[in-house]
Amino acid sequence: MLDQIKGLHHVTSMADDARMNNHFFTNTLGLRRVKKTVNFDSPDVYHLYYGDEIGTPGTVMTYFPFPQMPRGRAGTGEVGTTVFSVQEGSLGFWRDRLHALGVTGLKEEETFGEKRLYFAGPDGDGFALVEVRNDPRTPWTAGGISEDHAIRGFHSVAMRLRDEGATAELLKFMGYQELDRKDGVTRLIVPDGNGASLVDLETLPNVNRAAQGAGSVHHVAFAVDNREKQLEVRRALMDTGYHVTPVIDRDYFWAIYFRTPGGVLFEVATNEPGFDRDEDVAHLGSALKLPQQHKHLRPILESHLQKLED
């Protein structure tokens, strides 16, 4: 069993409108845009990152906004719900706020003894807020939401699977332990994690596979401290029979990818070097940052990419 993984690093999804996506995460949810860059493989598409003040691993929601992308179809083989942590007692604030701002899909329930509020993103994305007692992480508050209510980072992701068995075994190999089971959902936790330490597996044997599109999670990334730890994880996964990509430099972290038995794309990402490697903390997410191989495209991209603000 591995011990290098410390919880979630980031979750990457897809959208069809960059401006609407930016407004939702920075205005509606009050997160900070910590990086404005482009998709490495399709530089005419943004890669937008939202999180806490510095984009701490375990807080970062990222998006590829593909213009006019059709909506995804929910199903199995995907992350169905991305869940954020908020302070105990704050769900009333969020229910009123999201309702007033026209957010759809609002539903409250209690699961695993935790109060949660479900809601939909602009593309039908599945989200929830969960009240967590004494989450020590410091939230971003310059987005206009007080510290008492602001999002502190990820709580968990919930994966929809036809059969949880092989994915559960993989996560246990990656260092997760079973914490609880309830109503067809298995909850796993990584001990001594970064706060974004939980994964829920929902078994839906009679549900068709998902079709990716706007509103779908593209992949979920798990955090390791550095490249040395990442290489240890890569070797162990390959020795177990997984087909893992070579290490890829993503400018703000190094990444490896592999497909899970349940169909979800996993990434293992380093906590280094961080989002302040090419911008000072005070101005994170302000300027368009381009990977080295796309810097020659700056004039074209700056005229092509949608303006995020007025």
Automatic annotation (TrEMBL):
Keyword Oxidoreductase present in the record's keywords: the answer is yes
Please give the name of this protein.
Answer: Dioxygenase
Please name the Pfam families in this protein's record.
Answer: Glyoxalase
Q: Where is the Cyclic nucleotide-binding domain?
A: 77-138
Known PANTHER family for this protein?
Answer: RING-CLEAVING DIOXYGENASE MHQE-RELATED
Species annotation: Sinorhizobium saheli
Database matches in PROSITE patterns: CNMP_BINDING_3, VOC
**Gene3D superfamilies in UniProt:** 2,3-Dihydroxybiphenyl 1,2-Dioxygenase, domain 1
This protein's UniProt keywords: Dioxygenase, Oxidoreductase
**Looking at the keywords, is Oxidoreductase present?**
yes
User: One GO molecular-function annotation for this sequence?
Assistant: dioxygenase activity
Q: VOC domain: from which residue to which, for each copy? A: 7-132, 153-271
